[in-house]
Amino acid sequence: MIDVYSWPTPNGHKVHIMLEECGLPYRVHAVNIGAGDQFRPDFLKISPNNKIPAIVDDEGTDGQPFALFESGAILVYLASKAGRFLGNTDREKFTTLQWLMFQMGGVGPMLGQAHHFRIYAPEQIEYAVNRYTNEAKRLYGVIDKQVAQHAYLAGDEYTIADIATWPWLRSWQNQGIDWADYPNAKRWFDEIEARPAVQRGVQVLADARKPLVDDKARENLFGATQYEKR
Ligand SMILES: N[C@@H](CCC(=O)N[C@@H](CS)C(=O)NCC(=O)O)C(=O)O
C-alpha cells in the first residue's frame, strides 16, 4: 500500500494521476498547505522541504518501507515499480527523463511564478507579470512544437513526462495563455484530459480544497511562517 501525503495542486495531481494510471493501491492523506499542515514535524520527517507531494510505500524495492518527496522522483519511482510510462529502451527512458526535467526545472517553476505574480501577489508588479507571462508563453511554444511532431512529449507513447506536465497547463487562463496560439498543445492537452485515469486523478481531494489566497493561506505560503527556521 502506498500512503500519499498531498493536496489538490498540480504537483499533487501528478502523483494522483500516476497512481490511477498504474492501478497501484493507495491511501491519500490531506496536507492542507493553506492551513500550514506542511510544517508539522511528522510531515517534515518525510518531506523536509515542507512541500507536497510525498509518499511512503510500505513495500519499497528492498521490501522495507520507503519514503520519498519531490514529485519527479515519485513519478520515476512509481514508473519503475509499475513497469509503465517510462519507456522501454534506454533511448526512450532518457528522452522521457529529459522532458520530465524540462517540466520540473522549467514548466513548474515558471508557470508557478506566472500564477503567483498574476493572481496571488497583493500588488501587480508589471516587470514580474511580464517576465513570467512571457516565460509561460515561451514554454507553451516549446510544448506546442514538440507535440506538433510527436503524439506525446517524449515521442509516440504517453509517459510520466506528460503526466508531470499536463496538470500545470490546466490553469492556462491564470498564466495569461490563449490556446488559439498553441493548437498542437491544445490537441495534446484535450487528449490527456479525456483519459479516465486523469479524470479520476483530478478528483482526488477535490472536496478538500479551499482557496489558497485567504489571509491565513497567504501567510503560511508566502509570509513569515514559510520562512521560520525549523
Ligand atoms: N519541486 C517540488 C515542488 C512541490 C511544491 O511546490 N508543492 C507546493 C504545492 S504545489 C507546496 O507544497 N507548497 C507548500 C509550501 O511551499 O509551503 C515537487 O515537484 O514536488
UniProtKB/TrEMBL annotation:
Domain (GST N-terminal): residue spans on this chain: 1-86
- Quote the SUPFAM superfamilies the UniProt record gives: GST C-terminal domain-like, Thioredoxin-like
User: According to the UniProt entry, where is the signal peptide?
Assistant: none
Specify one Pfam family. Answer: GST_C
Q: Which organism is it from?
A: Noviherbaspirillum aridicola
- All copies of the GST C-terminal domain together span 89-212
Question: By what name is this protein known?
Answer: Thiol:disulfide oxidoreductase
